[in-house]
Design a protein that fits this description.
heterotrimer; A alpha/beta (358); B alpha/beta (292); C mainly alpha (630); A: alpha/beta; D-Maltodextrin-Binding Protein, domain 2; 2 domains; four-stranded mixed beta sheet; 12 helices; elongated; disordered N terminus; C: mainly alpha; 3 domains; two-stranded antiparallel sheet
Amino acid sequence: MSKSRGLLDDVRTTIARREIASLSREKTIVLALLIQLFIAAFSSFLVVGLTSLYDPSSVEGEGIRVGVSGDVQQDLNETAREVDGVTAVEYDTQDGALSSFDRGEVDAVLVANRTANGSRIDVTAIAPEENLRTTLVVVKIRELLTEFERTERDRRSVDLSFQPIELPEDADASPYFGFTYTVLIPLLLFLPPFISGSVSVDAVTEEIERGTLELLRVAPVSLVDIIDGKALGMALLAPAQALLWIFLLSLNNIAVSNVLPILVFVTAIATVVVVLGVVLGLATARRRQAQLLYSVLVILLFGLAIFLPEHPATTVAKLAVDSATLGTYAHVVGFSVGAALLYAGARRYASSIDVESL
Amino acid sequence: MIEVSDLRKEYGDFAAVEGSTFAVEDGEVFGIIGPNGAGKTTTLKMLAGLIEPTSGQVSVAGYDADDTEMRRRLGFLPEESPLYEEMTPISYLTFFADLYDVPSDVAEERIDETLSELDLDHRERQLGDMSKGMKRKVAIARSLINDPDVLIYDEPASGLDPLTTNYIIQFTERLAEEGKTIVFSAHNLFHVESICDRVAIMNEGSIVAKGDLETLQAEHGETEYHVYTTVEVPDSVKKNGRYRRVVNSMDEVEATREAATEAGGEVVDIRTEESSLEEVFLNVAESGRVEA
Amino acid sequence: MRPRKLLRIARWEVTKNAGGVDKRTLAVAGLAIALIAVLAPAVAAQGAVLDEGIYRVAVDEDSRYYDVVEENPTFVARPDATREDLGESVDLYIEDGYVSPAASPKGRAAKEELRSAVQAYNNEQLRQEANQSAAFPVSVSLEYREQSQAGGTLATDGEDPQQVRDPDNRSDNRTGDGTPVDGNGSNATDGTDGTDGTDGTDGTNGTDGTDGTDGTAGAPNSGGLGGAGSAISGDGDSVDSPSQLSPPFPFESLVLAFVFIIPMNFLIQAYGSTILSERLNRRGELLLVSPVSRYEIIGGKTLPYFAGAMAIEAVIAVGLTYVGTGTIGGLVSIAAILPLVALFLAATFVGAMFARSFKELTFVTVTITVGLTSYAFVPAIFTDVTPIALISPLTVVVRDLQGQAVAAPEFLFSVTPPLLSAIVLFGLGAGLYREEDMFAQRAIPLKVLDALAGPVRKRWHVGAMVAVLLPFVFVLQLLAIAVLFALGEVSIPLLLVVVAVVEEIAKSLPVYAAYAHKRFERSTVSALVLGAIAGAGFFVGEKITQLAQLVGLPELAQGQAALQIAPTDVGAPILIALFFLPLLLHGVTAAISAVGASRGKRAYVVALGVAMLVHLVYNLAVLSEVLGNV
């Protein structure tokens, strides 16, 4: 490769462009984007759907009615007045409460009795089975009983050496905030690099299996150039997709901070997996083998990453949620350097390969 | 053995083959020649039942082309024969023998025999590691694994070195002598000329000429007369101390004789040269004549 | 199809790849998988690190909250931060025991997280107390009961034998199997558990050592990976503090779904490769000229992968059943997973027949993975919530593993659509398994048309082809129900749009394909006839799909909207009309699009749009009529 040539007419850029062009010609890019849209719809459904199903505050309603009976029913009833969205109805007998439950007049039944020695209270809670409201009912029962537990504990506080710390009041937060940033976003941002790596396996093995690598060789290009071009195309595709993700997430009202460091990090990750894919492609020369090894090794690498000071998923999460520390940025830099080194290593490996043997 | 009538294959609005009609007799060697894109491969694949014709009939050994029984009696060698590169010749051939319901003891014997005849060693080497010629030999061995009555060979010797090419042509000739019916296509007309009983010439999807070599030469070829004289006559070339004039008709031969006598010399030799198949082919291709 | 030939090809498929290179590959892959297995517990234990340091809290070292913040990895303590930093470098500011959150979703989430952290911290401290009955004065046993059932049949009282009050036995009180559950290590979903925020029990994170089974407290289908085994057998539970109650959360379904689905994703990679490599360089041409039918080739090449997948799934099912109940079982699960395996393979097969290169195949495989995983997965989340969940066979699996019985109609309802879809996909793919489609670089839409027009010879074939497409229509509509029903009443009009679009495409595409392949004369009369046949084919197929009624799906308004099931309390004439009106509708709309199809691509698109609109208007009218009558 002569150094005098500019980047744009570099043969590697030509190969990279050809790689990307072949993807778009095959409409695979469109397919990839459709997948993204699908996942976006799917994930917002997950968030919206789960929120409404499992978060009582997000379900607008008149609250639940609980039938209470047993020897401490009065205390329970008093506690219930202090809990939002719960109305207690006292029943003299357990059977009375149960038949009301069966008729659907109450959503749940609590039977509360003191134990024989009177030191504790046993509550039998009955919630409806297989019902959209089940979750809501259980959450409300839990709230009621936790409050009840606190009252009862206060009564016994003389017997305790530790005085419980006061709970901060309910903050009315989205229950999926943490999930979104620590699971959803890392998952979505790691998907493009994973696909890129997989496609780079294809890009290499396809040339070998079709025998077109030899044709490329006739052109004044080295194997390293070919690898450069393919890797470049694939490694750059990932941050582009990640950017699209971030945009789609913002449409879902999920703000992502530190976009630039995230893109750098995604590029570094993509480079690492693309190097893995290319090396496996060259080493096995067969797609099936290379893809199998690729999938397994990527999972292994992801597992091994727990031994890093910070898991890459955590790095993305902390960047996205704007809680990045110095360590987080150091991680981004470290990964970038590591990716560059790995890439240099892969080029050395490629230059040592005799194309005839492929 | 093979009957083809009014065969037609369309791809969208483009007719790759149109109006092909021909028959191949039992034990005959039938060659199909023509330039690239003439429809040779498509025709052969329709014979082998690989491609469904848009219209027209194909029958091989009395069976329709899509009949499984027909395939059992057919050996097909495609132009490119990529093999399963992870297999060895033995495992590859055994696999196909099984698919063709050849009993394993017969298959073993036949594989051994054919590979010996084809001079193929390295029987336990992976196909991917073999040279092109060796792969072609394995492909030919595969086409014979079911001891077929009919062989359809698409460019059996294309892209091989002259030695292997020659070998394969001779081998095909031997198969013909054994009584197999062979249909094959080729670019290299010399091969066709040397082993074919009859030939069809295709151009742009149609058969433009067909028949045995003599008929084709009579219809489309030209006989040249090489007249050798002791003196110079018009249009003559000096060669080995004699003068040669090439003419196309007996009248011109007479005219040359007269000219030589006038000049005080005489005609010492007249040779007739028939057109080669190549020349016939070029004539046909140039004129674009369509056989009625 | 001759089994002997099929098996011969299957044997070849397995052995041809047993060459030298692959042993090395298998060795490396085996080693990597072994390493993953070794790592798995460590990864699971570290699960919580995912949300490490997400929230930054300004808290003095002498505050009571300081220890809470310090002990919980989700928080980072910033003792030096001031109130001005709130919303900038800290998300919570604690002063004099008062917690102020930043005015952002993050601040509120941090406060909520702190609330559960405090609760956990309290519980942890209280566990050290000598007087446990004072520390945890209330114990709860939770039971689930069907409300419509006749009352009084259940013996419930404070003397429930499951209930555990002995503090010494607390660590394993929820598993009931007497084995102390091993710390956090058993909880792979820990990270998620801690972040979902609805699960109050995450407060016990790291304290009582039963975190893995924590999720099991509360509901038939909750629990983490570690607790999956014990959780699935439990129905209801007992806890010694109300804060440990957990609402039915689908973690277990999620985990189970993943356990069953993940192997499929590896498998289809290999399967797609082997199908596509037959097509590269015309490698498979010679099989096509051999006296073996394409069905034998496809069957033979698929069998090893199908058998392999079923073996893996069977091991998983039997293993989970054994872990869960201690008995050998799981037959129902295996039977339910079979159509799913078939569907994965069928979709990959068609994808590999369509793809023109390995790269394209990768994208196709990812699409299949995402699409089918969500089909199997999303409904299964709602296993214990709604009968709609049954559209995924995975729901049957989850139920079976939980020890719940699955009635035969439910089972059929669940497995029939994917099974039929798989068969249809294989059938369509087999239509492409021929020289012209396999080796040529034909555009994908043309291949779709090839596949649809392939078997069509006579007019009635078009109707049959439309009927054959119905499993897809059914699966797509059910998926739409599953995805949209969470939106409530709004989902019904949306559903009707989906229904109109999907059904009209299914009815008209075979007609269009037949015209594109010049199967029929392009006249208006012929188009009308074809349209009527397509509509009738759809109608007949649709009536068959109404086996949906068997599982009470129509109880849901959405189910009615999608499946057009008539209410039963109207007069006979209306019922008859409601029964035959769809036939009229399908005939009319199919005829509209067929006339378009007979006049070329652009006319087809326009006519299809018109047909969709007519369909939508009809649906809305019928829906309002039906709702009005009820």
